[in-house]
Here is the input.
Amino acid sequence: MTGPLQKLVRLGLRPAVSLALVGLASTLFAVRAHPRSYNVTRLGLADLTPSKNGYICGYDKYVYVTKWDSFVIVDVETRSIRGPYRLDPFNLDVEMAPGHGKACMSRPSSGNDRIHLIMPNQTKDEELIDPSIYIFDVHEWGEDPVLKGKIEGLGSRIKGGSFYSAFLDTSRIQYAGEPVWVFAVSNTCIGYAYQGLCNDTVYIFNIREILDAPVDDPGLPIRILAPDTIWYPGINPGFPPGPDIARGHDVTVHGNRLLVTNPGGGLYVVDTDPLWNQDPQGHPMVPKELGRCEYENAMTHDAWATEDLHYVFTSDEHFFEWGCNRPIGDITVYDIQGLGTPGLCNYPQAAKYVPSTAVTAHYCYIRQNLGYVANYNRGLRIFDVSFPDDPIEIGYYDTYLKPDLPPQYGVFDLWPFYDGHISACDVDSGVFVLQFDGALPACQGGVVQSAAGGIPIDGAWVYSLTADRGALSDENGYFELKTAKGTHAVMASAMEFGPSLVPAHYISGRDCASSDLNLTLQSNSSDSATAWNNGRKIAVDSAACIHVVYQNITLPHNDLPGTPMHSVTYAYSTDRGITWDFTSFEAAYYPSLAVDPDTVPHIVLLEHVGDPPNEHLVHYWKHASGQWQRDVIVSLPDKMDVIFTPAVAIYDETGPQAYYPPHVVWEYIDTVLQRTYIYYWNPSLGIPEEIVSADELHSLEFPSISFDGAGTPHVLWQDNSNPGASAIRHSSRANGVWQQSQVVALGEHPSVDEWGGGIYAVWEQGSPPEIVFGMYMGATWYNYLISETPSVPSKFPSLDDFNIVWAEESAGPGLYEIFYSKYYPNGPTDPQNLSGTPLTPSVYPQGCFHADEVIRAPCERFYVVWTEDLLSHQRVKFESVVPAEPGGS
Here is the structure.
């Protein structure tokens, strides 16, 4: 092949080179920027691999880990392990299925000084299981556990039913003859025939006989076939039934208060005093509901009370795949001192504490003035509750050092109640024995503002790298960073600004306003940060992580003093856009982004390096180790500004290296021949392929690429070869050959996409331009008008899964706003204004649709980024949109 391809010097596709070696990018803010621990010391690890580990409870220096169909015992001081002890040998004429449940312990009773483990056998729905609670004597470390009793329900296999958790009331265990109550909650219908009650019912059993029986009693195990009484929301007069979607999850007892949590329902506070009295038939009286707090989209997982019984802390286990409208998984604090009146929510929320915006809380425990949270793959979190209405995180230990997904790894449960020892059960390693070093809570208030004009910056992330704790600034730029007293490295960052780092700042007291910290950020966004629409700037992977790229401008150029230097920022968010992590690629231009099915981001961009300058078209991709890898697609020595607007796409099929190869198109101009080319490349090609060429510079522009259901690449571009009448042209690659292009329509700025195996596109058409949607069917394009505002220009459309965004002039010439519509077979929805800033130009929108594939509630979102031009600086805006429904906005 002759012509300009002779000048393309290919530097190699594999092996890739780490950024740390080539020095072309620097990490500004990484997920693992924080140390592994903060104010917490590791004393040791009881290694329980390869088994998956689960719930944990304890008595004295021993903790008991229940995992599926077995349990182990760990000596906290020595980290010695006994077990595993499987349930199968104790099975009594009932076929076992793997199960586990939240267990609890008994302290010595009056009858003997034995210690008992109360272990429910919980399993998945629709399995034939043994819905029982096993009661083991585990007193002697050197002896095997003895099964002393079994709560069997109906004493037979029940389909889809089980006990989820159990808790023991030991308040009167030392008094001979007094009942010892076990409270067990079901997460499905366990089918007591005479009741027929399901879901949120608490079953109450007296196990005094079992606890007092000697271990050599020939009548063991003692069976209990029915509860002594039950409680459920609505059983008490004046209180309504619980919601239909409620299902029991956890129960705990604190003094005479029973706390019941129901994902889908909420928190219920119940008085257990009536149990010590009997009704005329000789049965225990039903416990009395004192109050509740039900709320929409509840995911109340567990609850624990302060020692004075004034406050209750609940873990709200919200995973994003459980529904778009659920809040971040957090800790909610309720003030339960007042009883209130029967109704939907008796108790006010005293506070909210969010351990991590990326990972949900799981279990929460309160001991004296400290709270402890099992925070999955963000580890153990410790917070001060001296003021329960203002909890402040003051320590953590991260047991999970792998990438942050999937979310249900790391610390699953913990037990902080033995002599300063914290036993944290990590899902895939074992029990970490930790110790809190002691720290006092503190708060730092301040303002984040722009260097140009001192304008407050809202939504900036102010973060302590020392404490792995951050806060968002409000609309006035004000923030309150609550953490532990001491010296912190504090960083502030926002999507459109360079970071600001205060390497050593001492935070002294709990009063947030005692000393203000003013942080100034330098704007580095260019006025074309998210341009152009042919190459994607935003993508969402299968784990709901949002990826964004955009272009910045920085002064001066490292190699060309006095000239602007551009850079490219890659940002990603694991919490649906609340917080972002950033990486910067220096001397870079025209980024385009794609994410493969393995959640790996791929970025294609231009690099201008050296003096005289050299232009490189480069592919970056993130290795499983977390390091960026770099491939040079083409290199042009002594050239600059000859490659423009590359676009990258990924087809869902792995290549020979067992990774998903990128497919790239771009515009190339030959300044000698005065000719323009559109090229295509993937790693299997020796050199890039020419798709089309034409005379004159920039006669072909803005190539956009996607794949149909058969894996055929389709490329659309803007053809300017006919003066005054730009056209959209289309070509596809069949049998390794690019086909003769066809005219789609007269227009500019195409954006192509695939849906359901078909090819679709949007572009500008007419004067003033309007937005047109096109469908490629049977080798023919069919076009439909989207924007219909007379005499109002609409530009830069972007398409993803029939969701369309564009910039439309609103308040006057050059004053664009961002609009959104979705195409349906009966026509597009009414345009929806996303920016809402008529006097601030907003341009170059890019959107990406995401629907969770594994969800527990419907969840669809359309994410949009665009460039907003303020008086003092440009900024990159991000918006989350609920996709429009047919027939309207």
The domain at 442-521 is CATH 2.60.40.1120 (Immunoglobulin-like).
